[in-house]
Amino acid sequence: MNNNQFRRFFGAALTIIGTVVVLFACVAFLSDGKPVLGMSISKGESAAPFIVGMIFFLSGVSLVRES
């Protein structure tokens, strides 16, 4: 596996993980205090997974675009 293929694979993995985390943050934001996947997350606390997911998503897209 050469460097270009590894960067594309890693970028695709980061993009998928980022998408899943952002979707989780959106569901947690809309849940109105009900447990989501066994975790009780308030509206304010759902900002942290959203930010982390966006970082993963944008870095994955950047890796795929540059390779």
TrEMBL record:
Keywords: Membrane, Transmembrane, Transmembrane helix. This is DUF3098 domain-containing protein. The chain crosses the membrane at residues 9-31, 46-64. It comes from Rudanella paleaurantiibacter. The lineage of its organism: Bacteria, Pseudomonadati, Bacteroidota, Cytophagia, Cytophagales. The keyword Transmembrane helix applies.
